[in-house]
Specification:
The complex is a heterodimer.
Chain A: E1 3-8, H1 14-21, E2 40-46, E3 49-56, H2 63-73, H3 80-91, H4 98-108, E4 112-118, H5 128-137, E5 141-146, H6 154-161, E6 167-170, H7 178-189, H8 193-230, E7 233-237, H9 243-272, E8 280-282, E9 293-299, H10 305-326, H11 334-356, E10 358-359, E11 363-364, E12 366-372, H12 380-396, E13 406-408, H13 413-418, H14 422-437, H15 441-462
Chain B: H1 8-22, H2 27-41, H3 49-60, H4 63-98, E1 107-108, H5 109-131, H6 134-137, H7 143-152, H8 159-163, H9 168-177, H10 186-218, E2 223-224, H11 233-243, H12 258-264, H13 272-275, H14 278-281, H15 285-320, H16 325-333, E3 337-338, E4 366-371, H17 380-390, E5 393-399, H18 406-417, E6 425-430, H19 437-449, E7 456-464, E8 467-469, H20 473-486, E9 491-493
Parallel strand pairs in B: 1-2, 4-5, 4-6, 6-7, 7-9
Antiparallel strand pairs in B: 7-8
Helix pairs in contact in B: 1-4, 2-3, 2-16, 3-16, 4-9, 4-10, 5-7, 5-15, 10-15, 18-19
The chains are: A alpha/beta, B alpha/beta.
């Protein structure tokens, strides 16, 4: 099984690289050096089977001294790996060379070396001792230039590193996308022939996992959008109550609930991409409709005025129909027509009287319903989707080494819609229309998830994510 | 434990219960758990996703789940049996009422036809209207309200009555499943209510048919027709011919002829027995029973079959589009990829109690300088500038660290140990490089060699292309933390900051 020890000077971004490659946002990354005190293993497992292992290590603290010890010990060049091994055996547990023992142990156990330097700081002579020690181990190695702040010294480093390492790559742990990550893993596989195959399999599994993450994210987003577009509040109040009094409280409740639903959706997407520690900030959503507040009357067991009139008309018509049948149709169905009209019209005008009645003075027969929402504006699903896709892209593209708060800008609707192809747009329009009308929700949910999955995969493919 | 013996209603109920329970677990936990189930089941299930889903469900059931599912089923059975019994009872009562016969008058065929044919056909027709899909009829204004209204009168709604005999928790569970709280189940709810309605209709008509048969078999029933309006017997014959059209070829005896129609016409003030053979008046019964069978029972049976079929497809559809189903299948069929560490090192960050000063302080007097940067000693202009900034005069300068051999460092320490104890020592370091253990060792060794209270200045310097720059605050904080960890009160950090910022 391939193992890779990520080593280097203290505070040169080793943990950032490990965090990004292992997609682990809980790796401790601090601004001070020496944050990593012990080596930590990040095994990449597929169904429990370890494909490769990354090992984060503390930085060299006394490389010059360690090399001096080794130089004293060595007799022949080919003894060098053995001397490094002896060094670890000799000093381990002694309280001296703690960091060196900790970082060299996995290498003498057979791990490949990933040597990390900072491309934004100049090269210095003090790095030579540690590079020399690594060379002494005889293990396959590769250098990564991590330009933490800028790329000013990348070339200077490349020239220096080429003297010690066969492969040198630039790898910015803070900005790399998914494909750069898999590319670097494939490069790790090139270090030794036996490692190539497992690393390829690992990359395939990671790509499969990526696909799953996109699928899950699409499902989570669609679930959220469906819930938000369907969300409405209703409250029954007595007929003589003032509806205006309830309005502000209901509005706040409605708005808070929508925000909660959206936040929950965001959190789900973040967890899918293993960004569970991330905090984000986003502009609040606009509701688009100004008059979401509706006042409806209800009568008799929840029927509204129209339904009540229809019930009465039908009852009247049935009664009339019986009369018609009794006279063998001689009345030319006048009975049914008259009965229907009488019942319907009568109940329409009597509705309010009915509403005020109470059976035995307890059970009310009618009243008012205050309704807030749902947001029926046709653009609402697009707004929700636009915001969610933007957030998803930011999360999916965010390396796990980043620790700052995620700030989301407001989304310009026309921007993302214009990027869609004609067919894609047509399909979206159909689905959004169904959503607004609350039709065939189960099917829409499935189809929209599929649509969204295709869309986010395509956006990632074009690299338009974080723009 | 297998989900197979459960009904589809139970499976959906259990599925909903499991999926809502799963919302409390993290994705990683769920994926690990479900993938284990998927791997254990092997690949042969992948083609039949329904089976795979139900297998998954059965692997997770608890005893409490099974108990609840059983209660749901008995509740459902209670409603079905209750509605059937009520239909039977009302069917029997209706016939008792319609055949109220005191031996004097006759059973009026007009009533019978209105109730058993007219009313029943209209009700079946209304049921059919209520069943029409909204997507096809939505354009007709008020149609959906009318449908809702019709459904409101559906006998299937009697389920609420029977549901009262169930414990509250089960009632809520069923209600939730049948669409009051969950859109997905709306179709099942709709067709379940229709199914029950039609069951009621079938029970009603069956009871009516059986009751008529019993009445005819046990009593002498005389049928007749009568109306205040002067209706021509030919009109009645036309009606009976029309009604008996479906069976006129294979059961001609059940088709009333003109003689029978005319003979059965009776008037309130006339004594019928005097004019017609009583036996003749009984000949109506095959016609009456077939009318009930064709226009009452048969449409109800067809509607029952139709709604059962629709209910069954609603179940299939619901299972297919069940919220959360895709997620479960994805978890079952995709490998668990783990990349994260099982445990983490706690970020052990010392707090910098005192932030580093970012300005040079005047040291004054002479200073022995150790260059730990390898960048300064051979450049006189830099040395001059550093002296100017620090306001000190260079007593002696040494070079140590970096590429120097350890013996050279030791020599520097020995030399400094022999020098004037009152002259402070300054160690010039690269501000942008993190302080290493090697430097800490050097300062330790130096402290052993010089007087316990001799001042050692740590002087971080930023140099780029031979020019002095200001060290960044972040770098200085790092050095301040280093000094703090040395626990030597006579070591002080003094950054070298140029007067004119470049």
């Amino acid at each position: 099984m391939p193992r890779f020890a990520v080593v280097g000077h203290p505070n040169r971004g080793k943990s950032s690289i490990v965090a990004t490659l292992s997609q682990d946002d809980s790796v401790a990354i601090a601004k001070f050096s020496g944050t990593t005190r012990h080596r930590l293993s990040f095994p990449m497992k597929v169904d429990g089977r370890v494909m490769y292992e990354l090992i984060d290590t503390p930085g060299f603290q006394r490389a010059r001294k360690a090399l001096a010890w080794m130089q004293d010990e060595v007799e022949k060049v080919h003894d060098r790996p053995e001397v490094v091994k002896r060094f670890v055996e000799h000093w381990q547990g002694s309280g001296k060379f703690v960091d060196e023992c900790e970082l060299l142990q996995p290498i003498i156990d057979g791990a490949g070396i990933i040597y990390v330097v900072d491309g934004s700081r100049p090269y210095g002579e003090e790095y030579e001792a540690e590079m020399e020690i690594l060379r002494w181990t005889g293990q396959p190695s590769m250098a990564l230039i991590n330009p933490i702040d800028n790329t000013e010294y990348v070339e200077e480093w490349r020239a220096a590193l080429n003297q010690y390492f066969k492969i040198t790559r630039v790898f910015n742990a803070m900005t790399v996308d998914f494909y750069k990550r898999t590319e670097i893993l494939n490069a790790f596989g090139q270090l030794q022939e036996a490692w190539r195959r497992p690393l390829e399999q690992a990359v395939n599994s990671l790509e499969e996992m990526r696909k799953q993450q996109h699928q899950q994210a699409a499902q989570a987003i669609v679930k959220m959008v469906v819930e938000m577009t369907a969300f409405a509040l209703e409250k029954k109040i007595p007929t003589d109550a003032d509806a205006g009094e309830y309005q502000p409280a209901m509005e706040t409740q409605f708005f808070n609930k929508l925000r909660k639903l959206e936040n929950r959706g965001r959190k789900n997407v973040q967890e899918i991409y293993q960004h569970s520690h991330l905090e984000s900030r986003e502009d609040v959503i606009e509701l688009l409709d100004s008059d979401l507040f509706k006042l409806k009357d209800w009568y008799l067991w929840g029927l509204d005025k129209k339904q009540l009139a229809a019930v009465s008309a039908a009852a009247g018509a049935t009664a009339g129909l019986v009369v018609d049948a009794a006279v063998g149709g001689a009345s030319l169905m006048l009975g049914a027509v008259t009965g229907g009209i009488l019942g319907g019209v009568g109940s329409w005008f009597m509705a309010d009287t009915i509403a005020r009645q109470k059976i035995s003075g307890i059970l009310p027969l009618g009243g008012k319903i205050l309704a807030f929402g749902p947001v029926s504006n046709r653009n609402f699903p697009y707004v929700l989707l636009g915001r969610a896709i933007y957030h998803q892209q930011m999360i999916a593209g965010r390396p796990h080494a980043q620790r700052d708060q995620l700030k989301l800008k407001s989304v310009n609707q026309s921007d993302w819609l214009e990027r869609l192809g004609r067919e894609q747009r047509k399909q979206l329009d159909k689905l959004c229309k169904n959503l607004s009308n609350q039709e065939k929700l189960e099917q829409v949910q499935g189809e929209l998830s599929d649509w969204l999955f295709q869309a986010v995969t395509a956006i990632e493919g074009t690299g338009a994510n974080t723009s | 434990m297998s989900a197979e013996p459960f009904t589809r209603l139970q499976n959906l109920f259990l599925l909903q219960r499991q999926i809502s329970r799963d919302s409390e677990l993290t994705y990683a936990e769920l994926h690990q758990r479900d993938r284990n189930i998927g791997v254990a089941a092997g690949d042969n299930q992948k083609t039949d996703t329904d089976r795979q889903l139900l297998h998954w469900l059965s692997s997770l059931l608890t005893a409490e789940d099974i108990k609840q599912a059983m209660e749901i089923q008995s509740g459902h059975r209670l409603i079905t049996v209750g509605i059937s019994l009520l239909g039977l009872l009302l069917g029997w009562l209706a016939i008792i009422g319609l055949f109220q016969y005191d031996g004097q008058g006759r059973v009026n065929l007009v009533y019978l036809l209105i109730v058993l044919v007219g009313l029943q056909l209209s009700l079946s027709l209304l049921t059919l209207i209520a069943m029409l899909p909204q997507s096809k009829t939505g354009w007709i204004p008020g149609f959906s309200s009318f449908q809702q209204l019709l459904r409101w009168f559906s006998p299937g709604r009697l389920q609420k009555l029977f549901a009262r005999f169930m414990p509250v928790s089960e009632r809520q569970d069923i209600a939730e499943l049948l669409g009051r709280h969950h859109k997905v189940f709306a179709d099942i709810g709709k067709w379940q209510i229709f199914s029950w309605s039609q069951l009621f209709g079938v029970a009603f008509n069956t009871a009516a048919l059986v009751s008529i048969f019993i009445l005819i078999a046990t009593r002498d029933v005389a049928f007749g027709w009568s109306s205040t309006l002067a209706i021509d017997p030919l009109a009645i014959l036309g009606l009976t011919d029309m009604l008996s059209w479906p069976w006129h070829t294979w059961l001609p005896t059940a088709v009333p002829d003109f003689q029978l129609v005319e003979a059965s016409h009776y008037f309130r003030l006339q004594n019928s027995a005097a004019t017609v053979e009583p036996e003749t008046l009984g000949h109506w019964w095959p016609f009456v029973m077939l009318c009930l069978g064709f226009y009452g029972l048969l449409p109800r049976l067809l509607l029952l079959l139709f709604s059962r079929f629709q209910l069954s497809s609603a179940y299939t559809r619901t299972l297919h589009y069940f919220p959360g189903r895709r997620e479960v299948l994805a978890r079952l069929n995709s490998a668990v990829v783990e990349t994260r560490a099982k445990q983490h090192d706690d970020a052990n960050e010392d707090v910098v109690t005192e932030p580093a000063k970012s300005e040079s302080q005047l040291m004054g007097g002479a200073l022995n300088l150790v260059d730990w940067t390898g960048l300064v000693l051979d450049k006189t202009t830099l040395i001059d500038e550093i002296q100017l900034v620090g306001q000190f005069s260079l007593a002696k300068a040494f070079s140590a660290g970096l590429k120097h051999k350890l013996e050279e460092d030791e020599k520097v320490i020995r030399q400094l140990g022999r020098m004037d104890k009152n002259v402070p020592i300054g160690i010039l370091v690269k501000s942008w490089e993190p302080p290493l253990g090697e430097l800490a060792d050097f300062i330790d060794d130096l402290r052993q060699a010089v007087a316990g209270q001799q001042i050692i200045y740590l002087l971080p310097v930023a140099i780029k292309a031979g020019q002095l720059l200001s060290p960044t605050q972040a770098d200085l904080d790092e050095w301040q933390r280093f000094v703090q960890r040395l626990v030597d009160p006579w070591v002080t950090l003094i950054p070298i900051v140029p007067r004119v910022q470049v």
